[in-house]
Amino acid sequence: MRIHSRPILLAVAIGLALSGCGESTSSSAGPGYKQANPNDNQDTGNDNQDSSNGGPETPDSGQDGNQSTFSQKKLIANLTDNVFTPTFQQFANKASTQPDIVKAYCDLETAFDPTLGDQAAKAARDEALLTAQNSWKETMVSWQHAELMIVGPLLADDKALRKDIYSWPDTNYCNVDQDVAYFAQGNINGVPYDISKRSDKRRGLDAMEYLLFNSNLDHSCSAAAAGDILAQWNTQDEQLRRSMRCQYAVEVSKDLKETAERLMFEWVGDQGYAAKLKNAGESGSEFDTVTQAVNRISDALFYMTEELKDYKLATPLGLFANQCGTEVCPEAVESRYAKHSIENIQANIAAFEQIFLGQGTDSADTTGFDDFLDNQSASQTKDVMIQGIANAKAATAALSDNLQQALNEDAAGVTNTHAKVKDVTDQLKNDFIQKLALELPKTSAGDND
């Protein structure tokens, strides 16, 4: 059910928040891992001894149980206030501009008559479309940073809110085409059209990409899937189809803005998830220990393992089955209409690095997982991961203009990028988890790549 925007509450909540501000086929947590103990805030990280046998520890003890300057609470506060919250706010700001920008394009598209040969009108329409496309790209980059921060409200209900914003890799362009027609018709089986009641595969940034970048005006459905609503679609006037698509794009952009506002409402404020993370281990908290909250954040980093390494790189490379079988397949990339896949990957890696190093909006506080590793006498793991991140960034930057072209002309370069990302995820799943005595996410307990 749609949670409509609540401007006054949202403004207060945001103000409060900002003012505060080959991989193994299986992997275990390793000898440093122990089952969560509500009496412990942190494992010693000593691989030779299970700290649960040595009595409770002080909350922010180091490798040998001695007090240190490192604080897991400080780690959570810095990442929450200076990395996660500003990222979500930037995305909400970008999403808020979408409706007006897309409507400006749609007004020109709807009024355009190609039979008149008005070159000035065509140039104005084309420029408005380019502006809308560039605005989408900026919004997508901000969201690709947030993809490494899927916690709390974005994780709840099988990631329902996240999927309303971006449903990839479960995008269904046939569904988008159907809703273009339903929206133009104004109803579905006599019931007034309401995008908030539609499935996530018909909404969000992936639907926007299809509507703004796909120049093929025929629908994407099979004959069997098209249904009555699209039975005559491919025979209709091209300008009418462009107009209908852009009108639905306006509706999708409005929905995206409201969904982004919902994210901010559920994230900030005294009852928001950001406060819940920072209050971990305190009386009444949903987290019995501070380490449990740290583990929620570390879980989000595993986007690098499945979504980035496997779906965005290994699948189009043919390492996993794709629509081409098991061979290199440019059609299997993430953002094929906007040709924005490389930028998405770069944003993912940059966000991973930002969280790992704790580099957010407060330059005076850069408490990150690198400091946690130092505290656990695991500086070598830290150094290997920092170098791995740099290598992954360099490999991605060396790719061609877009991933489709790179797969066709430089598959070795894409393979190298996959290998460099894999180096980081190998460390993440093994040494990182072991040295910090954290739990692996359930989805990352094994990996066949």
Q: What does it look like?
A:
With 449 residues, the chain is mainly α. It folds into 2 domains: 77-267, no CATH class; 280-449, A middle domain of Talin 1 (Up-down Bundle), CATH 1.20.1420. It is built from 16 helices and 2 strands. It has helices at residues 7-19, 72-111, 119-146, 156-165, 173-185, 204-213, 223-226, 238-267, 273-278, 290-300, 305-317, 341-357, 369-375, 379-397, 403-409, 411-436, and strands at 187-188, 191-192. The protein has a two-stranded antiparallel sheet with strand order 1-2. A hairpin with a 2-residue loop joins strand 1 (187-188) and strand 2. Helix 2 runs parallel beside helix 10, helix 3 packs parallel to helix 12 (341-357) and helix 5 (173-185) crosses helix 8. The radius of gyration is 24 Å and the shape is globular. Residues 1-67 have low confidence and may be disordered.
